[in-house]
Amino acid sequence: QRVAATLRATQKGMAVCSATVRNARARLEKVRLLYSPHTSAGRVPTNAGFDYWLAEFFALPEIAPYWQPEQAQLVVLAHGLSPRYKVCCCVGFPQVSSQVGVRVEVCDFE
Q1: Which phi and psi (to 5°) does residue 43 adopt?
Q2: Quick check: 28 and 50 in contact, CB under 8 A?
Q3: Which end of the chain is more exposed for a tag (fewer CB within 10 A), N or C?
């Protein structure tokens, strides 16, 4: 869903004008962290954008090789992320038990 720069600038905790938000979005698009799927669409993160967000907010590269979570631990992690970042976390496990892998998908509902 598109979010106007004016709305984003007036959100709680933001003290910037809408032009600042538009300029930031333009810079993110220039470095290929955001893109617009079509002319009338808003901007959405690229895979590199999601990778950057995860790397910036979580120290996953340092802990991921050593972290073999149980299902209950992932539920606790998801419950902790949801209110803090106002996102819904969906965690998936591989079908084959011999593989090691975890996929976390973050969905923004604002």
Answers
A1: -95, 145
A2: no
A3: N
Most confident by average pLDDT, 25-29, 50-54, 69-73, 101-105: 25-29
DSSP summary character for residue 45: E
**What is 1-57's CATH number?**
1.10.10.10
- For residue 10, give both structure tokens: 């007036």
CA distances from 37 to 12, 33, 34, 40, 41 (A): 28, 13, 10, 8, 6
61-70 pLDDT, tens digit per residue, is 565 555 566 7
Dihedral of the alpha carbons of 90, 11, 47, 106, in degrees to the nearest 10: 0
Residue type present at position 44: V
Distance of CA 79 to the CA centre of its chain: 15
> Domain map of the chain by residue range?
1-57, 65-110
